[in-house]
Design goal:
The chain is α+β, with helices and mostly antiparallel strands and 277 residues long. It folds into two domains: 213 residues, Bira Bifunctional Protein, Domain 2 (BirA Bifunctional Protein, domain 2); 41 residues, SH3 type barrels, CATH 2.30.30.100. 25% of the residues lie in helices and 30% in strands. It contains six helices and twelve strands. The strands form two sheets. A seven-stranded mixed beta sheet has the order 1-2-3-7-6-5-4, with helices on both faces. A five-stranded antiparallel beta sheet has the order 11-10-9-8-12. Helix 1 packs parallel to helix 5 and helix 3 runs antiparallel to helix 5. The radius of gyration is 18 Å and the shape is globular.
Length: 277
């Protein structure tokens, strides 16, 4: 891994101290470039690694989003990080929603900036009747090495735009945090620290209680609730929120249906065209 140049020692030390203040045995690494932070931590989960780890990359050569899509951004234009930890969870449903909620509440606790959550894994800026994509979440799990069968190695990857990526290959236009708030790119370490210090407690709470206690909080940020949507499997209907397991409730002519995040991708029909997750 390359030597870190874009973050100074003070910023890395502050991130490390904040992370270890919440998880004493956590390891923190910040690197210039890697293929994918999620891919790297999934590789490590195949070995003897058991301690939690935060891996931050200033750029990725093979970043990934949900359903195999690419997540690429020029160096310095985005925050890309993954948190890996062993977890014993009875029901993994809704974890991406819990993570997204922690990100939105960390960055926009009072809703001042208009950050919303697009089911199941996107962070949207939605100040009015249009939407732009600020970030995405990718969660992967596998059997944890040298661990009880009930525990799995869980990797949560987050990609957050600081500036809009220089590409037109987005069906929902992207936006960067610095463009929303007017903050300089130098805010990146502070923004990341806010995200991490919200994410770690959210992961611990999810391990204990699952998604059910967060249903009402998610509803306040739900970008799709009340909208007519089209699913990639051909179904159409109106999004009616989510249930206690994080499934989207879809009102169709055939009745109310539960949609699981592994099943499909979803696009709103009346907001801003198709979704790119």
């Amino acid at each position: 891994m390359a030597e870190v140049r874009l973050w100074n020692d003070t910023a890395v030390q502050a991130l490390t101290e904040a992370t270890r203040g919440l998880c004493a045995d956590a390891k923190v690494e910040v690197v210039d470039c890697i293929d994918s932070t999620n891919t790297e931590l999934m590789r490590r989960g195949q070995g003897s690694l058991s301690a939690p780890i935060l891996l931050v990359a200033l750029s990725q050569s093979a970043g990934r989003g949900r359903m195999g899509r690419e997540w690429l951004a020029p160096a310095g234009h985005g925050l890309t990080f993954s948190w890996g930890m062993p977890m014993a969870v009875s029901d993994w449903s809704g974890l991406s929603l819990a993570v997204g909620l922690s990100m939105a509440e960390a960055l926009d606790p009072q809703g001042h900036w208009g950050l919303r959550l697009k089911w199941p894994n996107d962070l949207w800026w939605q100040p009015d009747q249009t939407a732009r994509k600020l970030g995405g979440i990718l969660i992967e799990t596998q059997a944890a090495a040298a661990s009880a069968a009930a525990r799995r190695w869980c990797v949560v990857g987050v990609g957050l735009n600081l500036l809009s990526p220089p590409t037109s290959d987005w069906q929902v236009p992207p936006v960067g945090w610095c463009e929303i708030t007017g903050e300089p790119l130098a805010c990146a370490p502070a923004v990341l620290q806010r995200c991490v210090t919200a994410l770690l407690p959210a992961m611990s709470a999810f391990e204990r209680h699952g998604f059910a206690p967060l249903v009402d909080q998610f509803a306040l940020r739900d970008a799709l609730r009340g909208l007519d949507v089209a699913l990639s499997d051909g179904r159409q209907g109106r999004a009616m929120g989510v249930d206690a397991q994080g499934a989207m409730l879809l009102q169709t002519p055939q009745g109310l249906q539960r949609v699981h995040s592994a099943d499909v991708s979803v696009r709103p029909q009346s907001l801003c065209g198709a979704d790119h997750v």
